[in-house]
Amino acid sequence: MSLSNTLDRVDADLAAGRVPMARQRLRGLVSSFPYDLTLRRRLAEVYRLYGDAAEAGRWMYLEEDRDAVETAAFEERYGSPGWRMKALAWSGPETLAGTAFAEGQLVAVRTACSEAVGRPVAWGDPIPLEDEEYDEAPGEGSRWTAVVAATGAFLGVTVTVGVWIRGVIALFE
């Protein structure tokens, strides 16, 4: 599917009130076209519909006309340079940014991350985030939540298999 076809579907989703679908499509496009600042701007607009200032700030971070409140919310949620670098989902050299402001923002985040980890880093490098102030990615739940979810899944599978086995036994009685 082409970029323009997908953007047409995003517009149709938004017109029909399918905001989550529009967001999903735009996230995929930003992943496929990380250098397209227009796609990042569109994704920020969708997050504004959710009222999520931090995510709107995340996707507008490379824009000169960004909102200061959204930028501050993004910087607070992703409190370290390593998390910001990861959150911006950039890959490749900063020169592909398209604007001098975006390039400067990317250089500043990468430089701050390099200083934080004590070695030069590049976009796409694995960054030792465990050395930073968070134990998990911001907004992605806690380990406790993962344990509860895994336990629930295990119990659900166990009960399902038990019912199936009981049914097979009853069939032969």
What does this protein structure show overall?
The structure is a single chain. The chain is mainly alpha-helical and 173 residues long. Helix content is 66%, strand content 0%. The longest helix has 30 residues, at 143-172.
Topology:
Blueprint: H1 3-15, H2 19-32, H3 37-50, H4 53-60, H5 68-77, H6 81-88, H7 100-117, H8 143-172
List its traits.
extended; 173 residues
Q: How much helicity do the residues have? A: 55-70%
Q: What is the 3D shape? A: extended
Order of helices and strands: HHHHHHHH
Distinct helical segment count: 8
Give the CA-CA distance, first to last residue. Answer: 55 Å
Largest sheet: none
**How much is the radius of gyration in Å?**
21 Å
Task: Briefly note the structural class of the backbone.
Answer: mainly alpha
Unreliable spans: 131-136
Strand fraction band?
A: under 5%
Mean pLDDT: 87
Strands, total number: 0
